[in-house]
Amino acid sequence: MANENNVQEQELSQLLQVRRDKLAELQSAGKDPFRITKYDVTAHSADVKDDFDSFEGKTVTVAGRMMSKRIMGKASFCNVQDLKGNIQVYVARDSIGEEPYADFKKLDVGDIIGVTGAVFKTKTGETSIHAENVTLLSKSLQILPEKFHGLTNTDLRYRQRYVDLIMNSDSKETFIKRSKMISAIRKFLDNEGFMEVETPILVSNAGGASARPFETHFNALDEYL
């Protein structure tokens, strides 16, 4: 079991190194994505899908995290997840150019991209964007959890909320509803003349800056730290 874990860790380290190598290659080519500080978005995925009739044939700009990618020769598909949902993007070499298409094929799942293109529906009826331009806004140096199982470890979900919110739509909806409820309660009480006051947590023993320093015994060296 230990050997199997070591092999998995080595494979993960190699995959992470590949992503860092890709970033270094982009930076050396003058395409450092971390230098982009502003990207104008004209629509969100949910707006386009909910009001397709108004957006059909029009050019929109969306931005979000690429959650999946399917390379199929001269044309590919990817799925972009933004603030309000996700939408499919159709990327063709003839539409964006040979060099940009080669750059697109090097992108990793988890990268944050911006897409400009016309809204249309595929033969299967899925609302999509026919990309005219794809911009890498931020390189993801970490690997997202496996798609179908997601983040299942409860302790890890609490410690890495940012990953849970990316992978788990239910968690994201819960956070959004909770935020709106707290905002509404605060607004109601504020209109009624109440004042919000922060109070310290009352405990029987001193904590934080008032805590008494303690020593830790390091068993291996029989020393106190």
Secondary structure elements and pairings:
Layout: H1 2-28, H2 45-50, H3 52-55, E1 59-72, E2 75-81, E3 86-92, H4 93-96, H5 98-105, E4 112-121, E5 127-138, H6 154-159, H7 161-167, H8 169-191, E6 217-218, E7 223-224
Parallel strand pairs: 3-5
Antiparallel strand pairs: 1-2, 1-4, 2-3, 4-5, 6-7
Q: Structural class, from secondary structure content?
A: alpha+beta
Q: How many strands appear in the DSSP assignment?
A: 7
What share of residues is helical?
25-40%
Average pLDDT: 86
Radius of gyration, in Å, reads: 24 Å
In the predicted model, the low-confidence regions spanning at least 5 consecutive residues are none
Main traits of this protein?
5-stranded mixed beta barrel; extended; 225 residues; alpha+beta
